[in-house]
């Protein structure tokens, strides 16, 4: 790896412009992100530790936690496979319709999650395209666990692919071709050459995908029908509790979800530092 590094561009803006921009950024982050996060934990503990533990160990709350983890546990590996396949196909091969495929990967970013949920209902619902076929075989997708998983997969599938595609385009295919010319097969080339080069970006994408999967509300709300103890995930259970004026219980569960988000943020920061260090060493 080379040691050449580009010296950061020095700004010529006056000092007050620099500090004004920094102040605006810090103020927005403090009042719109940090303070609400602190208030969530404060409200969650407002009725004491015993009530907090009782709230998050409630049967419906615990089922929502398990449903969230199960959904993320299925959606993330599927998106991992899709992300690697899509990144490999779009960066290593030339084919007609490649630009359309790349644009379609971004589709969940452009479509509202509510619309995504309605699309799944139109396809897999009892009156949908495949509704009769699924019903004849005793398979229920909408208002059941498969629908929740499908909705989560749909809204999260760009995250891994979008982290890998720019990196693999930047790296090119020289190392893979060198490995193939030395006798390596496709799997050996991927495992020994490609994967080590993309592992940090891959982990970063998985982390973002997992965070989005656990926090998804809109699409899951449409396809789950909010059945407590069966299809409610943590965001849906929090919304149900808050709608019933059980604020402390809602905040208790929200603090658990926020804690998972903070844990994800810490992991994301560590991975960003690692990726930045690797790029600076190139």
What features would you describe in this structure?
The protein is mostly helical and 282 residues long. The chain is 77% helix and 0% strand. Helix 3 (59-92) crosses helix 8 (145-156), helix 3 (59-92) packs parallel to helix 9 and helix 10 packs antiparallel against helix 11 (186-215). Residues 1-6 have low confidence and may be disordered.
Average pLDDT figure: 86
| Oligomeric category | single chain
The coarse silhouette is globular
Structural class: mainly alpha
| CA-based gyration radius | 23 Å
Unreliable stretches covering 5 or more consecutive residues:
1-6
Beta-strand content bin:
under 5%
Number of helices: 14
Q: Main β-sheet: number of strands, strand sense, barrel status?
A: none
Could you name the key traits of this structure?
282 residues, mainly alpha, 14 helices, 77% helix, disordered N terminus
Short structural summary:
With 282 residues, the protein is mainly α. Helix content is 77%, strand content 0%.
Write the layout of secondary structure elements.
Blueprint: H1 15-44, H2 49-56, H3 59-92, H4 98-105, H5 107-110, H6 113-124, H7 131-136, H8 145-156, H9 158-171, H10 174-181, H11 186-215, H12 218-224, H13 234-243, H14 247-281
């Amino acid at each position: 790896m080379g040691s050449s590094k580009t010296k950061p561009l020095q700004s010529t803006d006056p000092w007050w412009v620099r500090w004004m921009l920094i102040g605006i950024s810090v103020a927005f982050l403090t009042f719109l992100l940090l303070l609400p996060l602190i208030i969530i934990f404060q409200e969650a503990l407002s009725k004491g530790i015993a009530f907090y533990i009782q709230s998050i160990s409630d049967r419906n709350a615990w089922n929502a936690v398990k449903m969230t983890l199960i959904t993320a546990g299925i959606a993330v590996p599927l998106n991992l496979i899709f992300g690697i396949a899509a990144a490999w196909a779009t960066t290593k091969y030339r084919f007609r319709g490649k630009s359309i495929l790349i644009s379609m990967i971004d589709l969940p970013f452009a479509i509202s999650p509510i619309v995504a949920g309605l699309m799944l209902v139109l396809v897999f619902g009892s009156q949908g395209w495949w509704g009769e076929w699924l019903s004849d075989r005793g398979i229920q997708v909408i208002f059941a666990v498969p629908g929740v998983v499908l909705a989560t997969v749909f809204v999260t599938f760009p995250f891994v692919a979008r982290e890998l595609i720019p990196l693999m385009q930047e790296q090119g295919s020289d190392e893979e071709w060198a490995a193939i010319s030395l006798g390596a097969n496709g799997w050996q080339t991927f495992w020994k050459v490609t994967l080590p080069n993309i592992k940090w970006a891959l982990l970063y994408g998985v982390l973002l995908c997992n965070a989005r999967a656990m926090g998804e509300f809109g699409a899951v709300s449409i396809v789950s029908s909010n059945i407590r103890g069966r299809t409610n995930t943590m965001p849906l259970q929090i919304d149900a509790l808050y709608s019933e004026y059980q604020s402390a219980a809602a905040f208790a569960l929200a603090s658990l979800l926020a804690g998972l988000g903070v844990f994800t943020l810490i992991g994301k920061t560590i991975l960003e530092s690692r990726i930045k260090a690797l790029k600076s060493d190139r």
